[in-house]
Amino acid sequence: MSEEVHKPARPYIPETLYALIVVITTERICLWYQSELLSAPRWIIISAAIGLVLLAALSWKYHQHLVTLLLVSAIASLSAAYLLVASVADFSSALAAKAPSAWAFEITRDSTKGTYGYRCRARAHSEGSPDGEVWLTSDMPFENGETVHLIGRTKFFEDDDYGRWSRAQGVAATVRCVNVTDRERPHGLRGLVFGFRKRVVSVFEKSDTPERSLVIGSVAGIEIPLERTGLDELFAACGVSHLVAVSGGHLVVVAGAIAALLEGARLSKVHKMVISLIASGLFVLFCGAPVSALRAWCMSAIALMGEILGRRSHSLSSVSFVALCFALVNSGVTAQLGYLLSVSAVVGLCLFSSYSLYLLDRLVPRIGYIRRFSPRFNRSLRWIESEVRATLASTLTAQAVTVPICLETFGTLSLIAPVANILITLPFTILIALGMLAACFVPFPALSSLALRGADGAAGFAVWVLDGLKRVPYASLKIQGVGVWIELVTLAAFILLIVLWPTMHAHVWRKVVPALCLIVLAAMIRYRWFAPARLVVLDVGQGDAILVQEGPSAILIDAGPQESLLAPLERLHVEHLDAVILTHLHEDHTGGLAELKGSIGVDQVYVANGVKNHMSRQLQETVQAVSGREAQELTTGANLTEQHFHLKMVWPKQPVAGDENGDSIELLLEYQNGDAHYRGLLTGDAEEEQLAQIEQQIGDIDVLKVGHHGSEISINEEEAHRLSPELALDSAGEGNKYGHPTQECVDTLESAGAKFLCTKDVGSITVKANKDSIAVYTER
Q1: Cα angle: 639, vertex 643, 648; to 5 degrees
Q2: What is the pLDDT of residue 315?
Q3: Mean pLDDT of all residues in the chain?
Q4: Is 439 a domain residue?
Q5: How many structural domains compose the chain?
Q6: CATH of the domain at 170
Q7: Is the full-model pTM beyond 0.85?
Q8: Percentages (nearest 5) of helix, strand, coil residues in the chain
Q9: What residues make up the domain containing 603?
Q10: Angle (CA) 375 381 384, round 5°
Q11: Where are the beta strands (DSSP E) in 674-734?
Q12: What CATH number has the domain bearing residue 623?
């Protein structure tokens, strides 16, 4: 018989948590609108500060101590934010007055790999000028702790979202390194620890495998190997990035190892805690001192102080106090994703993990005593069940409280995360423990190599599991269009839960969960089998990718450049493609094809007549991996029909090699469903020379996909007037070096009566047919 399930007591909410919410909210608002704050008249700011002080004094007088605390928190956070804003402004002026060569840049965060090189955060020093933070970009990675002297260029931020986000963190500008003139290693304890870190990483990097990259990223906190192998995206898709990020989980492993070493030592509990705190502090420094790890270490320090003072530690009070101190000492952390995710997750776990476990026990009763097995087996089974339930409850809780931040930042919701956490938490703990052991044994190569093999095995198992889970349909969902409102709604929902703290009856819970599952299942069926009839020019940067979809059928024309295709397809909930047509072999039309492997099923890949023998070996292998078969060639007049869409190949007329713009497949598209109909021409990179040879057979159209990204020779005035499109849709990357689309092309099409839209301006463009017209929707 299963045990009776008792609802946990409503958690005690310390006043420091209320203060923390006020501080984070106030600082985020002030820092996001810091340009407005700087330009506001001083008398308004002074009046607001005086008003808050008077209100605080009044509330104190009438013994409203919580109100007083919140008002004081608001005053402190306003002051901290204003000081940061003023310091960024002063530093920006100093940075503009001196060349980068006059500054010394101390690297404060490890480099990460981006599209155009490496980027890290650095603190700039120059005699006679205020210090400040910058993004430092270069063609080479810099190491945390070193000081760099360089020749470079300074670029200050625009007043856009990226600029506001950077300045909110206290970063004043981006400095591009052109040439390094000197590099200095850190000194003292920091130099010793970072020197040891460099030695450890050099030993670990002797094996260049995904498994070893995961070991380096998890143990040393270096992200570049994870980015290079794509493991960062794999972990994000499966909702387990927190396992890689150095945080409280890593410190638990360190503390466990120290406890095992000191078990037989004749030391007091306090002395053991001090040793553990020092060891974990060195480990945090070894990993580059990320905010999440610093926060966890400070909580350990508070627990030690409580033990020394003879006071019992309260986790929620500790995390609130530590997070509050971080925010007031450096208000820029409230704009850092790592800080927000770490604090939200830990606060959420303190508040709701016990209630989540209660709901889980209500939904799925625990396994009772099994008489046919021994008591020892039953104890083991109950322990395993308890661990699985605790992991599942913690994962669901942490995911629920961080969903608003993740959706607003990444636009992704991982549905497979609970399963992934259950399956890889244990092997990941083994990975970290053996990886740390290997690092400690670096002076003893044989022992270090043995530990590394074990860590590689655990890492390989974790990667294998996650790679399989990622392939599960709807493992993660792309959800766009959410804003700050989702944070407010989620906060209100959690406040309501705390206030009501409802008793959940099993019969109600067992009706609610199946109903929710049915809703999710209905949504999945709708997206897979009942997609609306639409033509979508995908925003893939400087490249081409066009989706033609209706119901369960979908055709993709071109695949865009590398690492650009999967995200827009996932946002449209595309799971399967009946065909992919590669108009020609340029990389900006084929580079994204490899992304489809294991993510979106493809039945067949098509190319133009004659192109198959000119495909690179790599592209041939990609086509085989994606579709399970070789590419098939299309000839002029070939037809593809999907539901109410009809595609007819009208160019090229003869066999081609596929390596020239003029070799592009051109498709005449027709949609006919009752009174809803339109005609379009999809041109690839073909230009006016090719259009001149087919325009007579095409006739009047409604939609034109502009050739060659809107180059000046993509179409001429005569062709534009003969085709007479209502819509001219172009695909080009923002800030592309070619100047696409050219103003000449835009003017030519608009003079013919077309409405011109480009993905670089409006994002993905969707065309749907109405009864007597066509409707156009843009992503932004």
Answers
A1: 20
A2: 83
A3: 87
A4: no
A5: 4
A6: 2.40.50
A7: no
A8: 55, 15, 30
A9: 530-778
A10: 145
A11: 676-682, 703-705, 727-730
A12: 3.60.15.10
